[in-house]
Amino acid sequence: MKIRINPGTRRMLCLVGAMALGGGVPALFRPAGAFFENCAGDFVPPMVMLMLLFSFIDVKFSRESTGWSHLRIPLFMVALATCAYFAVGKLTGNEDFAVMAFLIGMTPTANAAPVITGLLGRREDYATVSVVSTNLFTAVALAPVSALVFGDALEIDTFSLAWKTMMLVGVPFALSVIFRNFMKPVAAFIRRWKFLSFYLWMVMLFTVCAQSSAYVSKQEHLSPTLLLEIFALAASLCAINFAAGYFLGEPRFRRECSQSLGQKNTMLMLWVGLAFFNPVVALGPTFYVVCHNLWNSWQLRHADVNETTIK
């Protein structure tokens, strides 16, 4: 008897499988763990840039690409980060948990969000504006907001963060404009291979999860109970972000705003956690990437099953 699996379910299983495989490889094969921990991160930015090029090749910006929700998103980020810091600190009595909540709240939109938004049949141009605006906002606002919350500002290199964002997003965007307007055969070639975005995302998920797993496996002092508590915190904040984004967005942008607020640039805050705090704090963004990608995989399944409701 042949079992039929609809395309949405197949996508979900592929993504969950990529995450599970990535999480298991470092534990089963230690040399691979060392590779992913030290080198694999170098492969992620080029993959993101290629995914964005596939996404941007058909994106044309207009006044309809933006909405007031692009202003509400960063305001909510600050509000959630501040409230979560004090609430989690009060409830748990654990400063590391409170800092995790703050960093997750202040995390900007993931660079891959336009790609996922496009796969969901929604407007990639809206998500692209969110990527640029929230990443620049975090680069500028993280130090002063941390000073207000912690009483001591983080020594963040604002220019460096802003430059990295502009390079990661700006280069594929500029190339897409050049190809679309002056090199139409190249643009047509890229469109033919646009379906590779999904497979690039799978490879990126595998890489990020393997890198995170290798990092977690080295923290021998962490108990399974503590790891579950951190995962629960990340999952709760992930649910809040996706839900709040839906209600913050204009009626025509509800799903786009939800994606922009929920899908986070966790690699940025993972670095902040390691650079300014400690390895335990860095686990918050590490687990968040698993949570938001589990939700993304479910959304893709739902999008294909109920295609008419999202287009």
From TrEMBL:
Keyword Lyase on entry: no
Name of the protein in its database record: Uncharacterized protein
InterPro entries: BilAc:Na_symport/Acr3, Na+/solute_symporter_sf
Keywords: Membrane, Transmembrane, Transmembrane helix
GO cellular component, one term: membrane
Protein's membrane topology: Multi-pass membrane protein
Cellular compartments annotated: Membrane
Organism ancestry: Bacteria, Pseudomonadati, Verrucomicrobiota, Opitutia, Opitutia incertae sedis
Main location: membrane
Residue ranges crossing the lipid bilayer per the database entry: 43-61, 73-91, 97-120, 127-149, 161-183, 195-214, 226-248, 268-290
